[in-house]
Every structure is written in structure tokens, then in C-alpha cells.
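Final report, closing paragraph on structural work. Over the funding period we assembled a curated collection of sequence-structure pairs, and we close with a single example.
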Amino acid sequence: MNDSRLAVASCLEHERLAFELLEVRTRGQYLTRLRPLSSQEREEWDRRERAALARLVDHELEHGCSR
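Its predicted structure, as stored:
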């Protein structure tokens, strides 16, 4: 029973992390449509995207779940 709860929890966490990555990418895309990004803004957006992707990949490697 605990294994099934853990599997559901890890999948929920995977969904949350995937949504976080999508949100970072979408915000950056909308912002670039409004105006050009400064180099500092671009670096910050890139940093946030890399961090969100790293969290998702780490979760997949740790739990072996891909959805």
C-alpha cells in the first residue's frame, strides 16, 4: 500500500515539476513577445529554465518516473 502511495506521490511531483518548467518557458516566451529582453533578463530566464529542467530530470532519475 505504501508503494502505491509513493508511486502516486512521485507522479504528482513529476507533474508539478513539469508544469513548473512549462510555466517558466511560457512566461519567457510571452515576455519576449512584449519587448526585447536585456542581457540580464535573458540570463535570468535561462537560469530559471535550466534550474526547472534540472529539478525535473533529477526527479526522474531518483524515482524512475517519467509521468
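The radius of gyration is 15 Å. The longest helix spans residues 2-34. We thank the funder for supporting this effort.
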